[in-house]
Each structure stands twice: as C-alpha cells, then as structure tokens.
Amino acid sequence: MRRAFFSFVDLRSLEIRMSRSLLNAVPGHWRGGCAAVVMAAVLAAFAVGAVPATAPEAVPQRTIQRLLLTNATQAGKRIVAVGDQGYVIYSDDSGEHWLRGVTPRAVLLTAVRFVDDMHGWAVGHDGVILATIDGGAHWSEQRFQPDDEKPLLGIWFKDLNSGIAIGAYGLYLETADGGKTWAERAIIDEDKHLNAITAFGEQELAIAAEAGGLLISTDSGQTWRAAAVPYAGSYFGVLALPDHALLAFGLRGKIFRSEDAGETWQAVPGAGELTLLGGAIVGQRIVLAGSAGSVEVSTDGGRSFAVVNAGIASAFSSAVITDAQHALLFGERGVAKIEVPAAGDAR
Questions:
Q1: pTM for the complete prediction?
Q2: CA distances from 172 to 80, 85, 169, 257 (A)
Q3: Which end of the chain is more exposed for a tag (fewer CB within 10 A), N or C?
Q4: Per-state percent for the chain, helix, strand, coil, to nearest 5
C-alpha cells in the first residue's frame, strides 16, 4: 500500500494536513488528529470561499487570517503567496494590502517561484502547474493530472524556458519550452518525497527530500547525486548562501550548513526542536519558520540561530524578509508580520 503523503506538518500534536484522497491510507492510530485538521481546512475553505475570482480583487484582512498559505516568494518588489483552494494573493506594499489573483482551479497550491517581475509558476496538488505573465494577477493552467495522486511540492526555473517541478513519491518533471510541455523522469531509485528545490550557482541546484534525502546537481539538473548528510530525517527546505554555501533544515529543528557546495555538512547550533518548514535569506540575515509558531533567526549567515517569539502558536511554512527590521510569515492563519531582531537581540 502506498504510504500517505503529508503536505503540511505540525508535529506539536502530530496533526498533519494531507491530501484528502490519501487519508484512508493513514494508520488508524493517527487518523483522529489528521481528520481534525482536514476538517478544519474544509471549514476554512467555506469561510473564505472556494470559487475562484474572475478578476483580481482586494482581500480583506479578516479573510487573510483564515487562509491556509503554504509558500511565498518575491517578484521584484511584489510579494506573491499561494495556498489552499487555489488562492494566490499578492501585495505591492510589503503586506499591508493584498489582492487575489485569478486562478483556474480551487486546488491546494504548494509552491511558487518567479524568474523576473512578471513571469512565474506555481504548483500544487492534483499535479497542477500554473503560469503567470503579469506578476501573479492572472494564472493559466499548464498541467493537471489528478489521477496520478502525486502532489507537486517545488518549482524552479532557470529562465523563461527551462524549468523543473518536483513532488511526492519522487515525481520529477522537466520543461524546455516554458511549461507548454512537461516530461517526467526518475532521478532517484526510491520513491522519496522531493520537498523543495533551489539554485545556488549558475548551474548548481539542491533538492530537499524526505528520509535523509538531499540531492545536488552541478549541471542544471541533468544529473543528480545524493549528498552525504549527517541526519536521516526529512528535510523540508534548503537555502542558497553566498559563495556556494547551503543551509538545509527540516524535522525536529535540525539545521545543517555546507560551505563546499554540499560536499560536507556541519550541524548548526539552533534554539529549538520544532520542525522547520520554510525560510528566507537576505544578506547575512536568515529567517526560518515551522510548526507550532516556531521562528528562528540568524544574523551571521546561518552559523547560529536564536528563537523569536512570533506570538502565534499555529504552523508557518514560508517566510519573506521585507526589510532590515521585518519579515512576513505564511501558514495556517494567513500572514503574520514580525520584527527581525538585530545581531544579539533575538530572544
């Protein structure tokens, strides 16, 4: 039997957001907590409205706080976030006000990336891939394969033509024509979930995966090798640092840093043991966020981290640093703004 895919993790109580089509595959002793979280997501969908908008429209703050948002990025100065029920929201004033983009389907979107101010892609459940050419205001569908039961979890584009999408059970897709067509191939022998992908050089890529999986490519994804990481748990994200350095993070608050393009890894002193799901970097400042409201900040390029009290107990899955003092966190309760402490001020 295919194991269940976990699309959103909150290890505080082992409550896990997951694909509804796979809920019955969960072992019986986990179902109570999972069902409760799934029901909460369903109720939230009715609260915010599952019918896609027909034109970009303002999103009230009360609606923002009821959204499940899974990932966010920047398109120039614009911030774009994606989440449940096909929601794409974007802000041109650092999160003070938000507009809802037009999307074709009400599916859970899990990742979004842009190659410039206007051109971006989003992926999600049911194997969906969406594209935008106007900065996230309108989205068109490039792929939709619900029968495969393989959610997509990460997306990366080198330019307007060459891109990679990754997902559950080792799903790996490539395009050379901007997403008009996608070809699938296997890059690992196992069916590990491929959780996130990032570039850390002209041709260097890294993929964070489950069960100790961390993959490195030095030729823009043509070939991949497994990195020798010191932790066998799952990794949910990897950030590119200056000078081909990398920062990987995941279960139980584990953080590892590589200064040689993924050849060797060292554990980073952290301040917590809660799972880390997403992060952002600007210069030497790094923000990592995860389950049960966990937020950790580094001001020395990822060599050490300290806890920041976000004042919210729900899970965060993504972060965007907006300026030298602030960051936006995205998760179970929409968007939260926090102050990013200067060196030595984290508490």
A1: 0.85
A2: 24, 24, 9, 25
A3: N
A4: 15, 40, 45
CA–CA separation, 125 vs 123, rounded Å? Answer: 7
Q: What angle do CA 43, 111, 6 make, to 5 degrees?
A: 60
Contacts 24+ apart (CB under 8 A), 180-184: 180/142, 182/129, 182/142, 182/143
Write down the number of H helices and E strands in the chain. Answer: 2, 30
- What number of other Cβ atoms are within 10 A of residue 211's Cβ? 12
Placement of tokens 């959780």 in the chain: 195
| 101-125: pLDDT as tens digits | 999 999 999 999 999 999 999 999 9
The 8-class DSSP code of residue 243 comes to: T
If you search the block for the tokens 């041109």, which residue do you land on? 92
With H, G, I as helix, E, B as strand and everything else as coil, classify residue 43: helix
* Nearest to 222, CA basis, from 205, 240, 244: 205
Hey, where are the domains in the chain?
57-339
Q: State the Cα–Cα distance between residues 94 and 75, nearest whole angstrom.
A: 12
* H/E run at residue 145: none
Strand, helix or coil at 217?
A: strand
Tell me the β-bridge partners of 15. Answer: 10
Residue for token pair 């459940």 = 125
Strand partners, 184: 173
- Residue 338 structure tokens: 């926090």
Q: Residue 132: CB partners within 8 Å, gap ≥ 6?
A: 101, 118, 119, 120, 121, 122, 138, 139, 140
**pLDDT, tens digit (0-9, with 9 covering 90-100), for 162-213:** 999 999 999 999 999 999 999 999 999 999 999 999 999 999 999 999 999 9
Pull the structure tokens for residue 209.
Answer: 């995966």
Q: Which CATH superfamily is domain 57-339 in?
A: YVTN repeat-like/Quinoprotein amine dehydrogenase (2.130.10.10)
